[in-house]
């Protein structure tokens, strides 16, 4: 069965020097196939699936302590590691300083 409630992990970054500043603008990293924008057409690549996007679905049901790989993923995004960014649909910081 499928859950009745939609929970998801959303990864965001900011260029603000003070991330706690209420005026800080947070920008979202989009995944290639993870559910996100409700207006986006679903991603179908059967019988294959994007493993990272699939893991993100399961991570939403647990804490980050149970999914330590998310911390490593966030670190690689902060470092703008090209191999990691290639797994994403968009990099909101492309051509700019890292978040």
UniProtKB/TrEMBL annotation:
Pfam families named in the record: LMF1_C (PF25179)
A GO-annotated cellular component: endoplasmic reticulum membrane
Lineage of the organism: Eukaryota, Metazoa, Chordata, Craniata, Vertebrata
InterPro entries per UniProt: LMF (IPR009613), LMF1/2_C (IPR057433)
Organism domain of life: Eukaryota
GO BP annotations listed: protein maturation
Coiled coil location: none
Protein's name according to its UniProt entry: LMF1 factor
Organism whose genome encodes this protein: Ciccaba nigrolineata
Domain Lipase maturation factor 1/2 C-terminal positions: 2-99
